[in-house]
Structure formats: C-alpha cells, structure tokens
Amino acid sequence: MTAPPVRLLVVDDHPVVRQGLRTFLETRPDFEVVGEAGDGETAVAEAARLRPDVILMDLVMPGVGGLEAIGRIRAADPGARILVLTSFASADQVLPALRQGAAGYLLKDAAPAEVEAAIRAVHRGDGLLDPAVTATVLAEMARRGIPSGSLTAADPGFDSLTPREREVLGLLGRGLPNAAIARELFVAEKTVKTHVSSILAKLRLSDRTQAALYAARLGHPH
C-alpha cells in the first residue's frame, strides 16, 4: 500500500520564492504542497486549517514574523513539524527559532536535494540543523561562554548518560543526522536511534534539535 504524500505548507513573503519551492517540491511524487502563506499571521491560520505534515517557514516577513508564528503554531499544536528555511544563520535568529520549537533550520542557499532531505528528516521526526547553522551556534556559545542558567555537566540527566551516549550527544550538537553519526562511531544506524531515544529520555528533551541545543550549551560533552 502506497503511503500518503507528505503534505506541505510553504511560508515566505516573496511570491517568487513560494512558486519556486512549489514547482520543485511538486516534482516529487510523495510531496504535496497543500497551502502557501506570505506572512506569519496567515501561516498560523493556514497551519490550523490545513494541519500540514511539515511547514517550511521563512523568518523575516512583514507583520507577524516567522519566530512568532512558530511559537503560536506550536502552542496550538505541539506536534507541528516546522522547518525554518531562511537566509539568516546568525545565532540571534537560530537560537530563538529552535527554542520556539522549530524541528530544523536550513539556509536558502541549500541545494534542492538538501531541502528535500531536510523535509524528509523533519517528517520522520529526526530534525535537522544546517552544518553552517550549527557552526554559528557553537561559535556563539563559545564566544558568550556557557550562560549561568544553562545546563551543565553537573545536571543529573547528563550524569546518567553512558560514555557512548555522551559521544552521540556531542555529534548531535554538531548537527549530524543518524546515518552520519553511525558512520562516525562505526555502529549501525539502528544503534544510534536507540542511543538518541535514551538520551532524550534521560535529559527530558522532546526531540533531537533540543538535544543539539543542549550539547551546544554544554560545549563538548564528551
């Protein structure tokens, strides 16, 4: 039995960008663009009306911006899966987007195949950080130092991680997907998934993007 298509909502204030994304995405037989929005207010309404599987969200838009829209969409539907697709990789954009509940963050200069892979990852519940974005976040964390209110290695959840789980957490902090972590550690991808699930449970985190943020705040946990 064929799986239903992944239903997508494209949010961007530039009509040419929206059309370009729609044209590309609809070349994939298992993707369906069910709606578009040109600002955050419309995005919130369309997300509630359409309940798409994945929302592609620009950040800088007139009126209600992407950050506020992400927060409102996630407040109404905590299971909403949102992939930020933007031109901005500064920590001031990335960190708030992730804290609001974005499952992934990709730059607009990504190749079409990377956009497709990111959508699939977010749809699976994996989450994804653009490598350039992860580097920006880590650099910003290093520049600021670990804020006094952040989690540290003294956190009980961190103390309960095994040495291997700490290795996996460190690689999550670099934005690596499960397949890349498996290659790095010479283990099966299924093993990595088990470690990630254990890490999320022990650290009381909801998804791997939060785990990457945790690792970024921590520095180099392994």
Stretches where pLDDT is under 50 for at least 5 consecutive residues are 146-151
Structural class: alpha/beta
Describe the global form: globular
How many DSSP E strands? 6
Tell me about the biggest sheet? 6 strands, parallel
Chart the SSEs and their pairings:
Layout: E1 6-11, H1 15-25, E2 31-37, H2 40-50, E3 54-57, H3 66-76, E4 82-86, H4 91-100, E5 104-107, H5 112-124, E6 128-129, H6 131-144, H7 156-159, H8 163-173, H9 178-185, H10 189-203, H11 208-218
List keywords for this structure.
222 residues, 54% helix, globular, 11 helices, single chain, alpha/beta
Describe the structure.
The chain is α/β, with parallel strands linked by helices. Helix content is 54%, strand content 13%. The chain is built from 11 helices and 6 strands. It has helices at residues 15-25, 40-50, 66-76, 91-100, 112-124, 131-144, 156-159, 163-173, 178-185, 189-203, 208-218, and strands at 6-11, 31-37, 54-57, 82-86, 104-107, 128-129. The chain has a 6-stranded parallel β-sheet, with helices on both faces. α3 (66-76) links the parallel β3 and β4 (82-86). α2 packs parallel to α3 and α3 packs parallel to α4. The longest helix is centred in the C-terminal third of the chain and has 15 residues, at 189-203. The radius of gyration is 17 Å and the shape is globular. The chain starts with 5 loop residues before the first strand and ends with a helix. Mean pLDDT is 85; it is low at 146-151.
